[in-house]
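Have a close read of this protein, sequence plus C-alpha cells, and explain what the C-alpha cells say about the fold. Thanks in advance:
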Amino acid sequence: MSLQRNFCIQCGNEVVFDYVKPLRSYKINEQGEFIRDDNNCDYPGIEFYCSEDRNHDLGFNRDFVNWCDEVEQAFNDDKTFDKWGEFRMADLPDIQVTVPKIQMAIQQVGIENVEVPFMLQSKTGPFHELTAKTSIRTNLDGSKKGISMSRLILTLQPYLMKPLKHLMIVEILKDLRRNLETTESFIKFDFKIPVLKRSPISDNSFPLYYSSWFEGQLVDDKFKFYQGVKVQYASYCPCSAELSKDLKENRGCAVQGFPHAQRSFASVAIEANEDSYIWLEDIIALIEGSIATIPYPIIKRVDEQEIARIASNNPIFVEDAIRQISNTLNDYKDIKDYVVKCSHEESIHTHEAIAMMWKGIEGGFDSKYFL
C-alpha cells in the first residue's frame, strides 16, 4: 500500500483522520503506511481534520475529496487492524475478555503511579513543565474478567505535554469510558507546583514547591472536578507557651522556658462553583493567609528573629489552625465545597495531632476523602 500524505492549506500541518468504530486515529507515514495517531472522535465513518487544529479549513476541493475517498477505501481494505483498531496479534489469547468465575461488578479498577508529563499554567502567566503521578480507574461489569490496562495509558497518549485543565480532564474521562467500554471513569494527577516565596525581612526569593492535585470523576454522565494542595506551616503550642511563662512568673525560675514547636501541614481539597475558576495559587494563599507562621526557603538572622516574634504572638493548637483555615474557606464565594485535614507532627510526643473539617453540604466532602 502506498498513499500520499496531505497537508492543511491553512497552517501546513498534516491532515489526519478518525475512524469511529475502533475509536482510534491514524495517519499515513512517509512510507505510505498506516500508523496510530491515538485521538478519538464521535462521528460516524472517517473524519478528516488538521493535526494542529480541528477547526482549520482543509479546503474541500475535488482533489482533496478524491484523496479522502482513496484513504477511506484503502483503510477499509487494509487487514493490519482488527475491529478495535488494534494491530493484529496473530490471534493471541486474551483471557481478560472471558467471563470471571465470580461474576461480581467492581466499582473501581485501574492503575496508579503512572508518570505523566504535562504543562500547567501558573496564575502569573508562564507555563510550567511538570510530571504527575497519575492514577486511572474505571468500573467493571460483573460479566467481564478484567479491563485492558494498556488502554488506560494509551488513552493518555494524545494528551501528553498538553496544558492540564479541568476541560481537558473531562475529555480524558470521556475517552476512558469509550475506550474501556465502561460507564464510569476516574483520574487523579498528583504533582508539585513552584511558587516564588520571599523572606519576610531580607526579601530573598526562591521557589517553594507545593504538593497539589487535580481529580476528575465521570459518573452517570455527571462530571466532578476537585483540586487540592498540601501546605506546610509551623505551630507553636499554646499550652507549652503558658507553662514556660509560669516557670519564671510563679515557680521562681531565673529564666523563662521555651515553648515547643512542630512542623505542621494543612491538606485542602475544594470544589469550585460551576461558573468559577480557582487557581491552585489562590488556595495556597487562602491557607497561608489563615496561619501567621509559615516557612520560607531562605531565612537570614533578621528573618528568623521576625518569625520568632510572629510565633510568640500566634501560638496555635491543631484545633485553632483548622478553624482558622475553614473560616477563610467559608468566606470565599467561589468555593462550593471543601474538606481540610490539619496534622501537627509533635516534637515532644510520639504521636501526631490531627483535625478534620468539611463544609457539610449534601453529597459533598466528608472525612473519608483523606482516608
User: Anything to note?
Assistant: Helices lie at 62-77, 149-156, 166-180, 238-250, 280-290, 301-313, 318-330.
